[in-house]
Design a protein that fits this description.
Length: 188
Amino acid sequence: MNISATLNVFRLITNPALCLPHSTISNFNQLPTPISHAFLVGEKGQKPDIRAVVLDKDNCFARPKESVVYEAYEAKFQALKRAYPGTKLLIVSNSAGTNDDAGHEHANLLEKNTGVSVLRHSTKKPGCGTEVLSYFRDRPETGVTRPSQIAIVGDRLFTDVVMANMMGSWGIWVRDGVVEEKGMVSIL
């Protein structure tokens, strides 16, 4: 059970806008590179200064419970790695890298298969924003000095998008994901 998401439902009662994405794409292949092209800000259409990207895994760029990039999204994944090299691209999953991931075996395999770091975090999304920000701030090569320089890409409104909004980051909702899921719970 995701205690963090359950507790943050109360925040949504007082501020429902927390679950509104800044941008919506149908699937991972529609993610623009650079990611700042997904957003228009201000009257002059200025682009935000996105220096780092957080990717959700399950049903975003990989099938649920798999540790490889979905074949149809491999080219886009490689383009993101080129645009956001090294520590500028981070996978934050509510399965891999959490306390539920015994010995972080899933996180280790995901890192090996993708070449991208997986955040080890004790609090699941949407409550791990502080851990995400600490990761980037502890790595000066990312250039991240504030949350508005981070884009968070994911398929869940109540975890990925809420976390982005709570942090003051940019949220991109992957509406359809890798596997078509029916029902309201699948998007929350």
